[in-house]
Each structure stands twice: as C-alpha cells, then as structure tokens.
Design goal:
heterodimer, A: Ubiquitin-like (UB roll), DNA polymerase, domain 1, 5-stranded mixed β-sheet, 5 helices, 5 strands, 33% helix, 15% strand, B: alpha+beta, Enolase-like, domain 1, 4-stranded antiparallel β-sheet
C-alpha cells in the first residue's frame, strides 16, 4: 500500500506516495525527476546510483525509500550552486573524464565524499575509494586525473571561500 | 520485489514483539545491503520487513576498562573501519572491515547484518572468530551470549532464532604481544567477495620466538567460516619458523572443504588457502617481532 513519505533532497522537502519496496534510486528518478540518479545494475555493484545521504555516499538502489525518511539527500543536481558548477564537475569536463556519462554522477558524488573526508587524498586513496564505482567507457585514467585536479583546486581555494 | 508490509519499530522492545509475532514471515532490515538485492532477485520474500536501522541505541563502540570491547549491532562497517579506538587497540578488526565491499556499502552495512546473514564469505567473520568474540542475542524472553565459534550452522544459517535480535558483539581484551590480520584473496580485488579469506591472531612470548597462542579462521572455504584447529595446535607452544609456518598453512588448507563455484575452483581455493595462511602468519609474526 502506498504511503506518504517526506524526503529532503538538495535542501528541499518533498512529499511522495510510494510503496515501501521502491528503492530510493527509483523514487528520486521516477517520482521526483532527479534523473541524474542512474539505475544501471540495480544490485549495488556499479555505483551509478550513488547519492549522498547525511554526508555519506550510499548506493541508492539498495536503500528502500522509507529508510531515507528524515535524512539529508544530495543528488548530482544539488552540486550545482546558482548555476555554478562544483570544481569536480568542472574538472570532469576539462579533463574529458566521461564518455557515455552514465557512471559520472555516481563518480562525482563518491569523489566529493572522499575529498570532503580527506582533502589530501592520494591517487591510491582515490582509486581505492572508487572501488564501488564501475566505468565501462573510459578506463578510469581521466576520471582519476579529474578528481586529482579538483582536489588540488579545492585545496587552493579552501583557505578562502567555501566551495 | 514481492510486496511486503513495512514496519518501523521505535524501540528494541517493539522490534522484538514484532519478531515474536511474525517470526519466520519477517526479515530484519538493518543496512539492507544483503537483504535488498536478495529480495529483488526474489531469493528472499518476507511478508514483513522490520526496519531496525533507526534504533540508535545499538550504534556504539565501547571500550570496557580491562575487559574488552563491545560493538553495537547496528554499528556500520565503515564506522568500525574508521574507529579511532579500533584502529589503536584492535587494529585487525578495522583492517578487516576496510576490505568489505566498497565504501558506499560499508556506510550502511552493519556488523550484525554481516554476521546474521551468515554468508560463508562474510568478511567480518574470520577475524572475529580468530578473536574468539561472543555475540549477544536478545528476545522478549531474555538474552543469551553465544560464542561466534558456535554461531554459524550452515550457509546463511545461524543459531539466531526468528524472534531474536543480535544486539552486540563482545571482544575480549587482547593479551600483550597479540597481533592479527585478515587477508582476503580475490581475483580482481576491489569490491569482490572473498574467494578465500584467512584471519590469524597470534600471541608470541616476550622473546618473540614462541607462539603462546594462535587462532586461525578461514572464510569462503566451508559451509560456514571455520577455525583451523589442527593448524593452530601445530603452532601453539612451538618456536615459529618458516618451515613450521608452511607446514601449518598446508594443514589449515586440508581442514577446509571448499567447493567449485563461479568465482573459482575448489582446487584453486585449496592452493590459495596455503598461500594466504602462510602470508597471514608471516605478517603477524613480522608485526610481533618488529615490536619486541
């Protein structure tokens, strides 16, 4: 039976009517139109469904919608502030770190949590940190390059403005 | 996924009442990283799903003065991986947690979920078995403490009854000169399941030459995680050297009963068991001796 569920996504409150067996990924995409949340393997392996929940990267295809009640959810759409791209988004463009783009939102959000937790993350730590994100197109090299470039850029600006 | 009734108890007592009421027709939802994919595949079709994920009183890591450590059932694997207490005092537990799947999984997967789901490949089981931990199981009727060595009964099966909840994991205080490691064998690394898992916890004497105590636990090579008791007996009380380590590794391998499956053959697993047991023993002995 569909039940009302309040979700906070990208700092806004939404009310949806969903079955408890719908995943958070499905609800974000289908009910709320956040199509930046991708559903690919739907089994928790590829990471394209990754969103940030209460500051932590989470595979949203594995979360049943009611589990997300009361949590702060950020999708890739929430990364852009007043039309300004996040340094990670800019770096992915500058370094051509995507081809089909399907893994990209998950990659960026995972990278964001890695760098938020560890602004000095090494290449090794970034690679290990991305082990839950699969890309079939790029071979990962440009993705890692972009993340390291964003890391360096964010470190430069972190003494001043919050990005 | 088959339709189900979703329940969200507000307390442990309420959760236990629901489990008592619905028993075998219910499944407990903690992190969901094992449960949800199986429900989606329709391998598991509970009529009732009881979400205990918000029962915050089960999220803790408490160091008990001189007696050991208690980890709440709903503590996430990521919390275990990054816990300052564990990284200093029970480093091997943190090190094992770091190898479970990937960070986004570890962010929601729970210690009780990993143990109660009881995959023979469960990454937290070998190191906790080698530490001789106990788990607390609670029902409306009362509570009991079960040694992890007696907890698993088969693939996906444990002594936990349908009306019981695991509430905590209890780890005894480590003796001085005790070191441990969990080595996970997989073909591609990353977020893979263990092809073979070996955990060793060793206590050497003050000279660093004699093994006072050792526990070896093996994962993914039997219907449940198992201890390699014969290999342990060979090492206990003996002077440790490369030859003995290799002998013990081979004995450990013979104590397992791996199967052929999509991830590897039984034969390959037996070989890797020897290699990884040897490597784990070398690592812990190296750690112990470098601090003597």
């Amino acid at each position: 039976m569909k039940q009302a569920l309040e979700l906070k996504v990208n700092a806004q409150l939404y009310e949806v009517f969903v079955e408890p067996w719908q995943s958070l990924a499905e609800v974000l995409r289908e009910e709320l139109g956040f199509i930046g949340v991708k559903v690919s393997c739907n089994s928790g392996d590829c990471g394209s469904c990754i969103v940030i929940v209460d500051g932590k990267a989470v595979k949203s295809c594995l979360v049943l919608a009611p589990q997300a009640k009361g949590k702060e959810i950020i999708t890739i759409e929430g990364l852009t502030q007043d039309s300004r791209l996040h340094p990670l988004q800019e770096a992915f463009i500058e370094h051509f770190a995507f081809q089909c783009g399907y893994c990209t939102p998950g990659m960026i959000l995972m990278a964001k949590t890695l760098l938020d937790e560890n602004p000095d993350a090494t290449e090794d730590e970034i690679r290990t940190g991305l082990s839950g994100n699969l890309c079939r197109c790029t071979g990962y090299v440009k993705i890692i390059e972009a993340i390291m470039a964003a890391r360096d850029k964010m470190k430069k600006t972190s003494s001043g403005r919050k990005v | 996924m088959e339709p189900f009734v979703y329940l969200e108890p507000q307390s442990t007592k309420e959760a236990l009442s629901l489990l008592t009421k619905y028993g075998e027709k219910a499944k407990v939802l903690a992190g969901g990283t094992d449960l949800v994919p199986l429900m989606r595949q329709k391998s598991l079709n509970p009529r009732y799903v009881i979400n205990i994920g918000n029962l915050d009183n089960h999220k803790f890591i408490h160091s008990e003065h001189k007696t050991g450590l208690r980890i709440g059932a709903l503590t996430t694997i990521r919390e275990i991986e990054t816990s300052p207490i564990l990284k200093t005092e029970y480093k091997m537990v943190s090190q094992a947690a770091a190898q479970l799947a990937s960070i986004p999984i570890r962010n929601i997967a729970t210690i009780a979920g990993n143990l109660c789901h009881a995959s023979p490949a469960a990454d937290m089981a070998p190191i906790l078995m080698a530490l001789s931990v106990s788990v607390k199981l609670v029902s409306i009727a009362g509570e009991r403490v079960v040694s992890l060595a007696d907890f698993f009964t088969g693939p996906g099966a444990t002594v936990c009854k349908p009306d019981e909840l695991m509430t905590e994991v209890q780890i005894a205080q480590l003796l001085p000169n005790t070191y441990g490691v969990y080595l996970k064998c997989s073909t591609k690394g990353g977020q893979e399941l263990a092809l073979v898992g070996v955990a060793v916890v060793i206590t050497l004497d003050s000279s660093g030459k004699i093994c006072n105590d050792v526990k070896i636990a093996l994962g993914s090579v039997a219907p449940t995680p198992i201890r390699a008791y014969k290999a342990e007996a060979m090492l206990k009380g003996s002077a440790i050297n490369n030859e003995l380590i290799w002998e013990a590794a081979q004995v450990a391998s013979s104590e397992a009963s791996p199967i052929d499956d999509i991830r590897g053959s039984a034969e390959y697993r037996r070989e890797m068991l020897k290699v990884f047991t040897r490597d784990a023993l070398n690592q812990v002995v190296g750690l112990a001796r470098s601090s003597v």
